[in-house]
Amino acid sequence: MAISIQIFIYFIIFSITGYGISTWAISLPPQLSGRIHSDPDAIKAASTDYGHIISVNPAAVLSPSSVDDIKTLISFSFKSNSTPYTVAAKGNTHSTWGQAMAASGVVVDMLSLEKNGNGSRIIVSGNKGSGFYADVGGEQLWIDLLNETLKQGLSPVSWTDYLYLTVGGTLSNAGISGQTHRRGPQIANVKELDVVTGKGDLVTCSPRQNSELFFAVLGGLGQFGIITRARIVLEPTKKRVRWLRILYNDFAAFSTDQESLIAMTGASYQNVPDYVEGQLLMDPNTNLDFFPPSDRPKIISLIKQYGIIYFIEVAKYYDDSSNVDKDLKCLFKNLNGFIPGFMYEADVTYLDFLNRVHRDELVLREKGLWEIPHPWLNLFVPKSGIFDFNNGVFKDILLKNNFTSSLVLFYPMFRNKWDDRMSAVIPDEDVFYPAGFLDSSGFDNWQVFDNKNKEILQFCARTGIKIKQYLGHHGSKEEWIDHFGSKWNTFKQRKAQFDPKMLLSPGQKIFN
Ligand code: FAD
After folding, report:
1. Atom of ligand 1 nearest to the CA of 91
2. Is the CB of 506 under 6 A from ligand 1?
3. How far is CA 479 from its chain centroid?
4. Ligand 1 pocket, 189 CB below 6 A?
5. Is the CB of 176 under 6 A from ligand 1?
6. pTM exceeding the 0.85 threshold for the entire prediction
7. Which domain of life is it from (predicted)?
8. Mutate to test the pocket of ligand 1, among 165, 360, 495 (most ligand atoms within 8 A of CB)
């Protein structure tokens, strides 16, 4: 029988659903004793996230120095007959609804793999003929991967808007941004994974080897294993980016032009946009930094006149500036609905473009506005519902109720760039639109925004818009079953196969 250290931990759990006092004991593997922490600082760090809404205390935190530590932790719990504990991988804790937490379980602080490990956890390989790729630790931040690959003139092809997220964290969701329409989400740009399953086995998987686990884990919300290595597709990159914002007062023109931009194809990708997104402007004091100060009064009067101004955000990567001008002319010749004279552009390095949200982060941190509640809602809206969504959500729920300072993203992508064998769930239409309601709030009024989000969900249910939540949290198992729809049976079977004791990622509240 394994000798174990009995760690008795007594603590109070607070959560938004109420509070209670719980006491219990868990038994952890003795060989990890130096790397398991249960001091108040460690517990506190693992009991909060970017949402600052949910707070759940784990019993302990593992700071692994190797993948073996993670294997040891999980297999010990898996083999325990008396007190198995749950295990949650914590990436950079940028979830907003407690998804990386483990009430009374063990949180694995993935960033420790980089801090405590030996040697580089980003290795770039490949060649022009067969393609380039990077083998990357699941704990690595995308910004670090970008900086490393740029040294060799290479870059991943699919991104999130913000890069201080871990590879394992975004691959557990999908990883989307303005590149997704063309390159697919980040999960569609992975060749191979190393995963520690819920049985504590370290398994290498790919579309050809242990494929069931590979497809399960991508978009799998951490339910099937902890990603310890991902082989990410790279390609030679351009040095600069022409970055534009084009203003619309008419939703039909805005969405038609967005769809015509993403529909552009070209054998050499010469004449297609590299990035297409879109946002709403509803508040004369918010989100105008991109535009030249001299033009802001004109934009403010447009917002006041129309209530909502939509803008398309487009980017084209380039090396030679004379060609990019030509390419942009070609891109824009079919756009016909924007407000004449309201097309703005910036010229930045590739790194500055991809890392653009970090600049906002630094400003917000300085003002003390980063570590505050984020009652976010992210949806995928099928194309058939976008006009009802514009009228019912943007014009009615947001504008009429004065939710005008919200950061709202809205842009189209193609279903055929996603691989249906993966766990990620998207609407059942060829084109769908991510809609991001990225609010910040005070600690005492986040419910106001959450109620607004609930109203949006109720509106969609009432009007039959078959949205899917992205990065979502659901109140009951029935809601999760509804979310997964036709994928639920496969999801459940994969759980039984790879995490039969339901130890992993309890913060998602799917099986626990
Ligand atoms: P965490 O929040 O720590 O974990 C998320 C989930 O994944 C948890 O269930 C956790 O247990 C699990 N997990 C973490 N690491 C692993 C691993 N190695 N193996 C298995 N499971 C793991 N998303 C987009 O798609 N596009 C965007 O543009 C985008 N922009 C964002 C901007 C900001 C400012 C923020 C805060 C978030 C943004 N997100 C975006 C959401 C982001 O992708 C997810 O919140 C992601 O989960 C965060 O990664 P993380 O490393 O912090 O993961």
Report:
1. 3
2. no
3. 21
4. no
5. yes
6. yes
7. Eukaryota
8. 165
